[in-house]
């Protein structure tokens, strides 16, 4: 089979293609179980296989995909034909940054393959969680397990051949209750990625048990809480919301295809301009952010991207200064030419596709914020005069250039004179991205740092859902509007 | 091809019966094409041909599903899927209600939403459409983005409970054309939805783009003070606001689970303005409708709001089974929502701009990244995007930087609803997550809501 791909790639090169790659998925499987109020509403599995072909011809891309690998010649020809048509409208001929030819493989670290675990065992795991959540005040309880497994074999016309075998596990629990005014409130928990592996062994019953008790208790506190005040104060974002703040206003804002206008028809652009790299004070000196695809156990770590570039750890924001972007091979070349100088040295290895039938685009890896030197959460609270601690991603809405945002969280704890005073319900906060990050006044230490996974990041047309991660400490921002 | 699909489903049914497996089969086939533009070039030209088969096995109160991407030559592989689903259901847990396994009373073949001409449209025609839509409008500074997405969608179903089948075949096209300024970071948009090739009309898009471009190139941009405005929403914004009610409004299951701003006892009560009439109308072909739902129930026009009075929740079969309600024919991949037009004769943007007005009007054509802040209150938040205008009472026009609104649906469609256009527009709300599912909503071209707050206003594009 591998020889057939190589033969087709060489055939298209001979026909005038300047670059060809193929991503063959011999197998991709998902397994999802969802228990709602004790009802096993979803028990589903899926399996797919196929191949996606990407062809560069006279500076334009063509792509074609099929689940039928029996007629590769037709499929490769279709991709070339699509590129030929695209070549009729080229304004900036696509060029790809240099890379090495790689023969390698990557296997995500797992001790127990979740697909080897009997379904009955998975159901029992959910039943126990459901029983723990079935407490007074809880009107709705949801327990979910999602498992993914994919094998990807990548070939390109530059001599690379890379095989990846990746397994992901996404567990979560959630409770909802109704307050005296008839409003619904929820709390949820999904574990941070604390170990060195990401298989079935990461589903620690004790951890879930502790957190089941915690989220029920906190939700019941919200049900009898006063509404969040509307004012300006410091917001202390726990990793359960700071990961999303980072995702939306650092991660997406620094995708180079967005910056260059390739998402303007749909997801939007970015307030960041090419001239901002090395110049823009994105945040206070306490802010250091990086795209680190080398974390040992995150879905944002994948060995090699779908350009065949090795995973990297790159600075995005260095002590507040914007220095890097999330890139693939194509965009860095265009950005450097448009900027008239070499802003980027090469691809940052972040071009990924969600499936064989989608084309790779710039995607986040693990977009992390480095731990700071402001101590534990308690230390930060002690040093806060008037603030609110926020946690839980209830709602998020971001301006089309990622320039402003509005978030709602599941719970808030007011802080007065260095002490937590009371819980409030329906907390929200809003801001403008650059002023917000420049108001970053405290960053928690390693004790506050957690790696959160994201299993549903959407981008692109046709839309692609991607899995990734965020390593995040507790962060405090000053003079933020809350409660609107 | 239709015969092969139907025969394959019959073969799978026979196989399941031979194994004593109670099952439903859901076949989905898409032939999708997407030409995407960015920076005035074709940034992606792609096509996918995918066949998905979902097999759900039932064992009394237990059920389990197995989905595969396959092709029609792989009958043995599909039969293995039946075996896998049957094995899975043994290990599933019983629901606390009895799930209904559909039994189709008759075979239903619906190809009324299929247009051979649209199915046959090619690369050159897609490119030609875009070239016409932006003819003479692009410059070094003004760049083209957008998509031309089209395809053929086929759905077929059978269950072990009867020998009858359901078959739906449709064609659709969704076009977005965006012109953006290369350095100022503003964008204007024009969009079109088509079910037939004859509905494609790039000249209409060019007219709207040229009009907006003129405004954005020459009128004074400004930051609006936050506060109260009379706001006219365009069809895209209206469709987004209506669409979100699928999730937090009239869906019975969502209501029972605490995700609705409409309470169970509000049936028959005034919820919105008496100008508000919303129907799920599967007779409107523009909505890529299902005349039968996935359980075989016949679907007829279903009034949801009549003169602002909430008429009924919609119930899918599974939610009805779980909560003891009567299904309403809403086990569908999408509804066919139609918001009735009103009395105002305003059908085009030019007519809106020329409308005599006593107050400044803020025109918001598009709501970006809408999310639900509080489902119990119907509170949503979103930003303006793509060609907002401030229509001043003196007749002049200014270009506002983007603003954010955080408002409840009751405030938007309640007493402050001033008027709706008589002219209706088809707005394509298809998402491309997962399988192709062409969806559109019929809405008035414009509607005006008075005294709505904007809570944030950008200081630049």
Automatic annotation (TrEMBL), chain A:
Q: Which stretches make up the Metalloprotease TldD/E C-terminal domain?
A: 234-483
Q: Does DNA repair appear among the keywords?
A: no
Keywords annotated in UniProt = Hydrolase, Metalloprotease, Protease
Give residue ranges for domain Metalloprotease TldD/E N-terminal.
Answer: 29-83
Classification via Pfam families: PmbA_TldD_1st, PmbA_TldD_3rd
Coiled-coil region(s): none
Its family?
Belongs to the peptidase U62 family.
Q: What is this protein called?
A: TldD/PmbA family protein
Q: Which organism is it from?
A: Pelotalea chapellei
UniProtKB/TrEMBL annotation, chain B:
Matches recorded under Pfam families: PmbA_TldD_3rd
Alphabetized InterPro entries for the sequence: Metalloprtase-TldD/E_C, TldD/PmbA_N, TldD/PmbA_sf
The source's domain of life comes to Bacteria
Q: Where is the Metalloprotease TldD/E C-terminal domain?
A: 227-447
What Gene3D superfamilies does the database record attribute to this sequence? PmbA/TldD superfamily
Q: Which PANTHER family match?
A: CONSERVED PROTEIN, TLDD PROTEIN
State what protein this is by name: Metalloprotease TldD/E C-terminal domain-containing protein
């Amino acid at each position: 089979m591998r020889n057939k791909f190589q033969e087709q790639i060489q055939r298209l090169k001979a026909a005038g293609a300047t670059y060809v790659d193929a991503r063959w998925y011999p197998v991709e499987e998902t397994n999802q179980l969802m228990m709602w109020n004790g009802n096993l509403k979803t028990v589903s599995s899926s399996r797919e296989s196929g191949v996606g072909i990407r062809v560069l011809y006279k500076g334009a891309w063509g792509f074609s995909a099929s689940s039928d690998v029996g007629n590769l010649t037709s499929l490769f020809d279709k991709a070339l034909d699509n590129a030929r048509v695209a070549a009729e409208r080229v304004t900036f001929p696509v060029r790809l940054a240099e890379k090495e030819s790689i023969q390698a493989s990557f296997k995500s670290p797992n001790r127990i393959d979740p697909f080897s675990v009997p379904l009955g065992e998975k159901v029992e795991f959910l039943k126990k969680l459901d029983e723990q959540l079935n407490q007074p005040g809880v009107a709705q309880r949801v327990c979910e397990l999602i498992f993914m497994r994919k094998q990807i074999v990548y070939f390109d016309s530059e001599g690379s051949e890379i095989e990846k075998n990746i397994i992901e596990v996404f567990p979560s629990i959630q409770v909802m209750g109704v307050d005296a005014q008839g409003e619904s409130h929820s709390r949820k928990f999904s574990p941070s990625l604390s170990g060195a592996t990401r298989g079935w062994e990461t589903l620690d019953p004790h951890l879930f048990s502790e957190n089941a008790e915690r989220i029920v208790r906190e939700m019941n506190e919200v049900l009898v809480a006063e509404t969040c005040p509307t004012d300006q104060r410091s917001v202390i974002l726990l990793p359960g919301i700071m990961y999303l703040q980072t995702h939306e206003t650092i991660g997406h804002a620094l995708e180079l295809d967005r910056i260059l206008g390739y998402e303007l028809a749909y997801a939007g652009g970015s307030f960041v301009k090419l001239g901002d790299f090395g110049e823009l004070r994105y945040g206070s000196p306490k802010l250091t952010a990086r795209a680190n695809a080398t974390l040992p156990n995150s879905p944002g770590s994948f060995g090699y991207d779908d350009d065949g570039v090795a995973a990297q750890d790159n600075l995005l924001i260095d002590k507040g200064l914007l220095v890097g972007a999330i890139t693939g091979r194509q965009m860095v070349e265009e950005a450097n030419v448009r900027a008239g100088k070499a802003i980027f040295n090469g691809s940052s290895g972040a071009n990924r596709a969600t499936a064989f039938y989608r084309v790779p685009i710039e995607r986040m890896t693990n977009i992390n914020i480095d731990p700071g030197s402001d101590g534990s959460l308690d230390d930060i609270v002690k040093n806060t005069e008037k603030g609110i601690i926020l946690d839980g991603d209830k709602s998020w809405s971001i301006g089309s250039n990622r320039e402003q945002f509005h978030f709602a969280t599941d719970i808030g704890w007011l802080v007065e004179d260095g002490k937590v005073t009371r819980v409030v319900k329906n907390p929200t906060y809003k801001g403008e991205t650059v002023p917000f990050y420049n108001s970053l006044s405290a960053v928690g230490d390693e004790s506050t740092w957690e790696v959160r996974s994201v299993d549903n990041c959407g981008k692109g047309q046709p839309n692609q859902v991607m899995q990734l991660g965020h390593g995040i400490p507790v962060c405090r921002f000053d003079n933020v509007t809350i409660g609107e | 091809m239709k015969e092969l699909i139907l025969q394959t489903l019959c073969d799978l049914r026979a196989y399941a019966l031979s194994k004593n497996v109670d099952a439903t089969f859901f076949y989905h086939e898409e032939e999708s094409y997407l030409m995407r533009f960015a920076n005035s070039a074709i940034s992606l030209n792609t096509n996918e041909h995918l066949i998905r088969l979902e097999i759900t096995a039932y064992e009394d109160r237990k059920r389990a599903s197995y989905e595969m991407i396959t092709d029609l030559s792989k009958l043995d592989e599909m039969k293995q899927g039946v075996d896998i689903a049957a094995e899975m259901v043994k290990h599933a847990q019983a629901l606390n209600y009895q799930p209904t396994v559909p039994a189709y009373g008759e075979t239903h073949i619906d190809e009324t939403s299929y247009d051979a001409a649209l199915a046959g449209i090619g690369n050159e025609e897609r490119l030609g459409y875009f070239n016409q839509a932006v003819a003479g409008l692009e410059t070094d500074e003004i760049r083209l983005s957008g998509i031309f997405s089209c395809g053929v969608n086929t759905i077929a179903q059978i269950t072990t409970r009867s020998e009858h089948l359901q078959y739906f075949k449709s064609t659709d096209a969704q076009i977005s054309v965006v012109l953006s300024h290369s350095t100022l970071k503003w964008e204007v948009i024009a969009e079109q939805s088509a079910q037939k090739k004859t509905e494609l009309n790039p000249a209409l898009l060019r007219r709207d783009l040229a009009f907006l471009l003129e405004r954005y190139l020459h009128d004074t941009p400004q930051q609006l003070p936050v506060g109260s405005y009379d706001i006219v929403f365009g069809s895209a914004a209206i469709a987004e606001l209506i669409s979100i009610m699928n999730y937090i409004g009239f869906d019975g299951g969502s209501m029972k689970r605490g995700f609705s701003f409409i309470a169970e006892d509000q049936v028959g009560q005034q919820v919105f303005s008496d100008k508000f009439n919303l129907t799920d109308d599967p007779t409107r072909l523009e909505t890529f409708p299902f005349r039968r739902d996935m359980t075989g129930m016949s679907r007829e026009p279903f009034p949801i709001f009549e003169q602002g009075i909430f008429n009924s929740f919609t119930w899918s079969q599974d939610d009805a089974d779980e909560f003891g309600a009567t299904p309403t024919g809403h086990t569908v991949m999408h509804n066919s929502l139609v918001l009735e037009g009103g009395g105002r004769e305003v059908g085009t943007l030019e007519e809106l701009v020329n409308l005599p007005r006593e107050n400044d009007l803020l025109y918001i054509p598009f709501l970006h990244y809408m999310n639900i802040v509080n489902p119990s209150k119907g509170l949503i938040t979103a930003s303006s995007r793509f060609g907002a205008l401030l229509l001043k009472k003196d007749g002049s026009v200014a270009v506002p930087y983007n603003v954010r609104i955080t408002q409840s649906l009751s405030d938007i469609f309640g007493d402050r609803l001033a008027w709706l256009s008589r002219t209706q527009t088809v707005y394509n709300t298809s998402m491309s997550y997962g399988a192709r599912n062409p969806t559109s909503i019929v809405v008035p071209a414009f509607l005006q809501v008075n005294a709505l707050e904007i809570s944030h206003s950008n200081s630049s594009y």
